[in-house]
Write a structure and sequence with these properties.
The complex is a heterodimer of chains A (309) and B (308). Chain A has 309 residues and is mainly α. Helix content of chain A is 77%, strand content 0%. Chain B folds into two domains: 2-216, P-loop containing nucleotide triphosphate hydrolases (Rossmann fold, 3-Layer(aba) Sandwich); 228-290, Alpha-Beta Plaits, CATH 3.30.70. The chains are: A mainly alpha (309), B alpha/beta (308). Bound molecules: adenosine-5'-triphosphate and magnesium ion.
């Protein structure tokens, strides 16, 4: 397991990523945007506060805006980081060379993913001070912040895996970029559209329940299920939250898990399935292909099953 | 070291490698020659565990290639017919990356890299970005890369393509040195003369089939009769061709505007007959001479240009 994860690809990716000027620029831009939003909102509130006083709502409000914005930024950044990793290697013609080494295709994929995730983690960590400022406004629980970061990371990893999958599936980087962004957009907007559609056509005693599960695939819905209920803005999303935490509404629907937890599980399953598919697609002479093409080989192999290191 | 038995690879309906069988002894340099599209790269990729054969088997040092790719990868150094380089790495980092990918402990890597850079005469470029190297240097760097894990068998796909004559000689010298170090080498090319001095054995492949295989001496000997006549004319090239090919029923080919080559195994009487025919027809002959058989001729004879 150790050899699967800790391998030279990770070190190399870090080195090349940090070597060029793009990374610092990207991090600065990312932080700049988040900071700017906080400031802009703060100023707006202060102007209003001149007449009506500084509301207790400001903390949660900025928190929601920041969280949503961070999620959107990560959704935007991640495919750019991952949708070119495999076909980038193919285009540079280094991919065959990698496969020739003792790295398995599983470890190549995992490390490529890990390199991108660490980069995203770096972005998230860099944004923590901004969140800390929000915390000092008050009105936000530390546990909620933790959950927001958890959901953001899970979303980023999911989109990252989607990017890697596309970059394996499609020969050309441009194609996989476009497809990845389309899929991300489907997650952010498409799931909501499907929910609205299903809600429209469904009748019966519990019309909203099944439709809801579609919307739980949406990271934004998951995010809003974390926010405190009374905060402004949550109301807009209430039709997607399926009665969860919504006052006096659809009380019949009792759910074991909250939407963000469903989302978390959904992400986990998707990540595992896509990773397995990616490794399967990559392996030129791997186990899976041997299974499929030559049953005789499998028998002899089972006999002399070598211990995997 | 290497045994290939009835190896085939088809891409859809197209049979790129057709029941290929040959073997390479320990310490040999096996030249794998064939025209473009003959199936050299395909065969080498199968041996390098990058492709699955459609049927047939191959063993390297007793290991079945398609059954145990991991062990094969440890035994084989494969150099494809392109450089794969990362533009944001330096030469030593590049080699370090691949050594690490072969799971060589960090302590040993430093020494291996220094040795390889010395062998390839690249020490002065240690700190240079891979991208900034010349073609010849990149080629040597790639050779260094496939040596990091000290493989017993080197599979080199056209290592000298696109190099100037001096660089070719350099690569050849390096390969000789590697042979002296006890490596077995398979090297492909579509230029036979490039390999004659270097190789101990030759395999000539065309359209996925082996047309000749054996030691260099054997092949040269077998085709000893494969001689030709070179005919030089001042003009009337087409008439000359017509006389030879149609009237005499032989098959000459036009080398350039003034030169004809005629594969020919006959005796002197027959030679005289051809010459007489040409003279009587009023062809302005300049020279008419038997050329010594060289490998290029053998190659042209053996491979009849079926593919492409
Ligand atoms: N991925 C592929 N899909 C379909 N056909 C292929 C593929 N790769 C190679 N071929 C075909 O297989 C044949 C053999 O190709 P290969 O690259 O092995 O030839 P080669 O001997 O290496 O030629 P060259 O001297 O030009 O490198 C060619 O006709 C080629 O068109
Ligand atoms: Mg080739």
């Amino acid at each position: 397991m150790k050899s699967l994860v800790l391998n030279p690809i990770l070190a190399k990716e870090f080195r090349s990523r940090m070597r060029n000027w793009k990374s610092p620029l990207m991090i600065s831009l990312y932080l700049g945007l988040l900071g700017l939003i906080t400031l802009a909102y703060y100023w707006m509130q202060q102007k209003r506060g001149f007449y009506s006083g500084f509301g207790p709502d400001v903390g949660p409000q900025i928190f929601i805006i920041l969280s949503v914005f961070q999620l959107l930024l990560l959704s935007f950044v991640t495919p750019a980081l991952t949708a070119g990793v495999i076909n980038g290697e193919r285009e540079r013609q280094t991919f065959d060379l990698l496969l020739c080494t003792r790295l398995s295709s599983a470890s190549i994929v995992l490390n490529k993913l890990l390199a991108s995730i660490s980069y995203i983690l770096l972005l998230v960590i860099a944004s923590l001070p901004v969140f800390a400022i929000v915390y000092f406004f008050g009105g936000v629980l530390l546990s909620d912040m933790g959950r927001v970061i958890l959901v953001s990371m899970a979303t980023a990893i999911t989109f990252g895996v989607i990017g890697i999958f596309c970059s394996t599936l499609f020969k050309r980087t441009q194609v996989s970029m476009v497809v990845s962004y389309v899929v991300v957009l489907l997650f952010l907007v498409g799931t909501m559209a499907v929910t609205v559609f299903l809600q429209g056509i469904q009748t019966g005693p519990y019309p909203r329940v099944t439709a809801m599960y579609f919307s739980y695939a949406n990271p934004l819905v998951a995010l809003f299920s974390i926010f405190p209920n009374q905060a402004a803005g949550v109301g807009i999303m209430s039709s997607f939250l399926g009665g969860y935490r919504t006052y006096g509404y659809n009380a019949a629907v009792s759910q074991a898990l909250s939407p963000w937890q469903y989302n978390f599980i959904f992400d986990g399953v998707l990540i595992i399935v896509l990773l397995l598919l990616t490794v399967f697609l990559l392996d030129p002479v791997g186990r899976f292909k041997r299974l499929r093409k030559n049953p005789a080989v499998v028998e002899t192999e089972a006999e002399s099953a070598p211990a995997e290191g | 070291m290497l045994q290939v038995e009835e190896l085939s690879k088809s891409y859809g309906k197209f049979l790129a490698v057709d029941r290929l069988s040959f073997s390479v002894e320990d310490g040999a340099i096996f030249g794998f020659v064939g025209p473009n599209g003959a199936g050299k790269t395909t065969t080498m990729k199968i041996l390098g565990t990058l492709l699955r054969p459609s049927s047939g088997k191959a063993w390297i040092a007793g290991e079945d290639v398609s059954q145990n790719p991991r062990r094969i990868r440890q035994l084989v150094g494969y150099m494809p017919d392109f450089f794969g380089v990362y533009d944001d790495l330096k030469v030593d980092e590049y080699l370090d990356f691949y050594s690490a990918s072969y799971r060589i402990p960090a302590r040993q890597r430093e020494k291996i890299i220094s040795d390889l850079l010395e062998l390839m005469d690249l020490e002065h470029k240690r700190e240079a970005y891979v991208d900034s190297l010349s073609r010849g240097m990149k080629q040597r760097l790639c050779l260094a890369r496939c040596l990091v894990h000290d493989p017993a068998l080197l599979i080199l796909d056209e290592p000298a393509s696109g190099l100037d004559p001096r660089a070719r000689v350099e690569v050849r010298e390096i390969l000789k040195e590697l042979k002296n170090m006890g490596k077995t080498i398979i090297i492909s090319s579509h230029i036979l003369s490039e390999l004659t001095e270097l190789c101990t054995h030759l395999g000539i492949i065309e359209a996925g089939k082996m047309v000749a295989c054996g030691s260099v001496d054997e092949i040269v000997h077998r085709s000893q009769s494969a001689q030709s006549i070179e005919i030089r004319v001042l003009g009337q090239m087409d008439e000359a061709l017509f006389i030879i090919n149609n009237n005499l029923g032989l098959s000459a080919i036009k080398l350039d505007e003034q030169m004809l080559e005629l594969p020919f195994n006959g005796n002197e009487e027959e030679m005289n007959r051809i010459l007489t025919h040409l003279v009587q027809a009023g062809i302005p002959l300049v020279s008419f001479a038997q050329s010594q058989s060289n490998l290029e001729n053998i190659f042209m004879q053996l491979t009849k240009g079926v593919v492409q």
